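PROTEIN DESIGN WORKSHEET
SECTION A - STRUCTURE
LENGTH: 496
TOKENS:
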């Protein structure tokens, strides 16, 4: 299959009710997306897969759902009020805004823009273009051309001198302003007055909700260190340049663990969680060749982190972060102890020592994971001379587990039987009934959303009480007794 393009996924998601642009009816709101009927199932299954692995299948984890709005001191303690900023630059020519650290330095040549006068002389217009090549300069000229009379003859001339290495506007080569720091937290107000004293923030990460509940959970759940707390929830960041579909948005969901351990054991736990999280993506179907670990360089580390590794996925936009695993030391609990005045030390009965626990944080994005699972599952195949598009999702993640069709929709007894089978299966698996097209088309529809099983009720079913069950991946069709259908599905859907 050719390299997957992001546009292919965007189009599939729109066509099949997976993901829509946010507020599309009003021409959209940048950096927001809405998950449609199929997308919400996929996203919920990603969250279920994570919760199962990190809470239900373990003995050393607890779950939490903390409030999105938190006391404003939280964000002073965490360093977000002071330091959760991106350097922002504006293009002085086209007025577009960018993150300075997203702009690469490049070799730019300078070009003058000339206009032909009535006396056939060429005169400089005072406008200049900076571009990597003459071809790129000509392209930028097209953008400028509506500022000249429609029949004006324009020429660009390369100025003397070597290319100069610098950062310029990636869209038009224009000069950029000096970077200004821009805080990414969304502000809002509690109560009826819009004043500084009532300012709160929409949380930019779920992590702080865990730290402020460390003591509550330790005591109420009678935990001993080491143990961890897992949380899934919305986070908000006023990203300067949200882009690449659901990869970077302004409203997104995070799946975060804060794992509390004894200082000195942190390096071991850090390696352990890096491994666990990498393997989780493999377990749910990401192909190994599309996954890698990238340790952060020392100058890349966040202010609180002793070490950090990213699990990266080969997205259609290239290798990018899917999840980060950081050793946050005792930074957060120490800060909250300082800002709240409450004792957050832990008494270790084993060696009768008292300390502030160290924290290992695996922090992933639900939307980014969903995008990776979608991208990795997408296949275009040729089957008997026809193109088949299929989402080969792990069955646990598949939005719909089975689709039931009557072979003939004008035979009420087949329709009735198919609907009864759907109702029975619905008690265990998300199952849908469909009779709105011919069987071939119905199969194609289900393949595109990754439904593992299509079940057809036909005339023979009335005699032999058996149905045809088609496997999404092998496309093999098997005739099995109606009462064996749930077991057959369980074989594939149960997690091992
Ligand atoms: N508590 C640590 C923390 O929040 P982060 O690297 O800023 O670390 C963790 O975010 C994960 O959250 C990222 O790996 C990514 O999956 C997701 N994420 C962060 N910003 C995002 C955005 N604007 N849109 C979608 N996902 C985002």
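SECTION B - SEQUENCE
RESIDUE ASSIGNMENT:
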């Amino acid at each position: 299959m050719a390299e997957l393009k992001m546009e292919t996924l965007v189009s599939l998601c729109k066509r099949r009710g997976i993901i829509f642009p946010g507020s599309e009816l009003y021409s959209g709101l940048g950096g927001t997306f809405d998950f449609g009927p199929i997308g919400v199932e996929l996203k919920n299954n990603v969250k279920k897969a994570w919760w199962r692995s990190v809470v239900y299948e373990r003995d050393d984890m607890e779950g939490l759902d903390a409030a999105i709005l938190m006391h404003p001191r939280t964000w002073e303690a965490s360093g977000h009020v002071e330091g959760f900023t991106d350097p922002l630059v504006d293009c002085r020519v086209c007025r577009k805004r960018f993150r300075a650290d997203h702009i690469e330095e490049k070799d730019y040549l300078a070009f003058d823009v000339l206009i032909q006068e009535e006396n056939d002389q060429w005169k400089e217009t005072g406008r200049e273009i900076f571009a990597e090549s003459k071809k790129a300069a000509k392209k930028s000229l097209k953008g400028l051309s509506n500022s000249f009379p429609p029949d004006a003859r324009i020429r660009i001339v390369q100025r003397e001198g070597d290319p100069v290495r610098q950062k310029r506007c990636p869209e038009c080569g224009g000069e950029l302003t000096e970077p200004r720091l821009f805080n990414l937290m969304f502000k809002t107000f509690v109560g009826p007055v819009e004043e500084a004293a009532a300012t709160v923030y929409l949380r930019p990460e779920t992590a702080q909700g865990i730290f402020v509940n460390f003591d509550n959970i330790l005591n109420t759940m009678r935990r001993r260190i080491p143990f961890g707390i897992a949380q899934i929830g919305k986070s908000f960041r006023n990203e300067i340049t949200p882009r690449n579909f659901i990869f970077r948005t302004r409203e997104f969901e995070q799946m975060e663990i804060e794992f509390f351990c004894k200082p000195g054991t942190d390096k071991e736990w850090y390696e352990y969680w890096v491994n666990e999280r990498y393997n989780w993506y493999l377990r749910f179907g990401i192909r190994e060749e599309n996954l890698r670990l990238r340790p952060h360089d020392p100058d890349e580390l966040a202010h609180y982190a002793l070490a950090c590794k990213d699990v990266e996925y080969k997205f259609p936009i290239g290798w990018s972060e899917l999840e980060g695993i950081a050793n946050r030391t005792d930074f957060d609990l120490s800060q909250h102890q300082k800002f709240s005045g409450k004792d957050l030390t832990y008494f270790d009965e084993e060696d009768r020592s008292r300390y502030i626990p160290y924290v290992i944080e695996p922090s992933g994005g639900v939307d980014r994971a969903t995008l990776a699972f979608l991208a990795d599952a997408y296949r275009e195949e040729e089957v008997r001379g026809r193109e088949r598009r299929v989402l080969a999702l792990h069955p646990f993640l598949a939005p719909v587990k089975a689709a039931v069709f009557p072979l003939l929709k004008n035979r009420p007894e087949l329709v009735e039987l198919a609907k009864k089978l759907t109702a029975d299966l619905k008690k265990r698996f998300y199952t849908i009934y469909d009779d709105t097209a011919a069987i071939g088309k119905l199969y194609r529809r289900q393949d595109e959303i990754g439904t593992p099983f299509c079940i057809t009720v036909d005339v023979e079913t009335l005699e032999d009480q058996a149905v045809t069950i088609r496997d999404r991946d092998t496309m093999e069709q098997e005739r099995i007794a109606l009462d064996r259908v749930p077991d057959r599905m369980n074989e594939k859907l149960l997690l091992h």
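SECTION C - NOTES
The mean pLDDT is 94.
The CA atoms of residues 238 and 355 lie 36 Å apart.
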